[in-house]
Amino acid sequence: MATMNKNKGLRRVLLAAGYSIKGLRAAWCQEAAFRQELILCLVLIPIALWLDFSVMERLLLVAVLVQVLVVELLNSAIEAAIDRIGPEPHELSGQAKDLGSAAVFLSLLLAAVVWLSLLWSYLIGIID
């Protein structure tokens, strides 16, 4: 039989928001990569909004940056869960961490390609 969740409605939403803020705080305090990526976002997002891009291009530039943060948070969660299981090396633990790292790498690569492509087209437009 399923257990009943006593938290419903606004209380549930507020508790979930509190857990999310706690997670963001933990990522900021314990994950150097998350701090670096967040600082990069704080620099690049205003640039995306300032340059003469269409609304869709701006959304794309911001979305790929947010995606990097989301993937980094998921990677950190995987690493924390693996570390909780135990400190001894295991092939599957290493594989899980490597896969998480690969996901972060691909999200960073996607962000770089999108940003460089749009910046290149923007610069070509200025030169012409």
Would you mind describing this structure in some detail?
There is one protein chain. The protein is an all-alpha fold. It has one domain: Helix Hairpins (Orthogonal Bundle), CATH 1.10.287.3610. The chain has four helices and no strands. It is flat and about 60 Å long. It starts with 8 loop residues before the first helix and ends with a helix. The model has no long low-confidence stretch (mean pLDDT 92).
Shape: flat
Give the C-alpha Rg.
19 Å
What fold name stands as the CATH topology?
A: Helix Hairpins
**Helices and strands, in N-to-C order?**
HHHH
What is the typical, i.e. mean, pLDDT?
92
Q: What's the CATH class label?
A: Mainly Alpha
Oligomer: single chain
Weakly predicted, low-confidence segments: none
Total strand count, please? 0
Number of helices: 4
Relevant terms:
flat; 128 residues; Helix Hairpins; mainly alpha; single chain
Précis, in short:
By secondary structure, the protein is mostly helical. The chain has helices spanning 9-30, 32-50, 55-85, 91-127.
Question: How are the SSEs placed, and which strands pair?
Answer:
Elements: H1 9-30, H2 32-50, H3 55-85, H4 91-127
Helix pairs in contact: 2-3, 3-4
